[in-house]
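Reading a protein record of the kind used here takes only a little practice. An example makes this concrete, so a full record is given next.
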Amino acid sequence: MNFLLAHMEDFADKALETGFTASKFLTPAEASLVRNHFKYHRVELYFDGGFNSAERVRAVFTNPDWGEYARADLFSVLQLKHRDPLTHRDILGALMALGIARDTIGDIVCEPQASVLVCLPEMGGYISENLTKAGRVGVSVSEIGLDALPDKQENLTIKTDTVASLRLDAVLCAAFGLSRSKATQLISAGRANVDHQPCLQPTKELTEGTLLSIRGLGRVKLLEIGGESRKGRIFVSLGVYER
């Protein structure tokens, strides 16, 4: 067992004693690893990043018999006001310059003059007091409620197609306009991920909601699986992420 999963096992054990525990923010790949590890376990596991469709999330373990938690206790939500537009990289770089660890910060949503981020509750005060500039742009920080979080929109281009099957290689062909042999080659080379985990199996069957990526080509989500065409092909709806 790797270090991350051993650490999560400690959280799970503690949840059985205290009712609930929560990790720091996990990357999508880490969350996928934890989700698969705890599929059949004595604790209940939730993932929450504050935002809807958050990429970085906290793993929340609860005792199924009596544990519960309040979402508002998991996050500090900060609004950053700035005259000039800032990028995700600008804000994250300013936070890292303050000596803040990446796993204490969740998603950051950038707007032209008022960006929003979520962080661990114990970091909210420190960031509010010390973050005054991102790059060359002045920033004023205030704490807002979890219910004031804006919707985090996924920038997807919807594409509909038909596939011979729901195998990984077939769906990748439809998503990226590849030949079957090219898709198989990329998978065999270790360039394909399924739900943030490497996959070397072209025959892997996919389900709705699966996130796929090919290093160098981009990401796509299998949004919907429809019925069959007259020729026996399966209708699919794919969401292609902007690069």
The chain has six helices and 15 strands. Helices lie at 3-18, 28-37, 88-97, 121-130, 168-176, 180-188. The two ends are 34 Å apart (CA to CA). The chain has a mean pLDDT of 92.
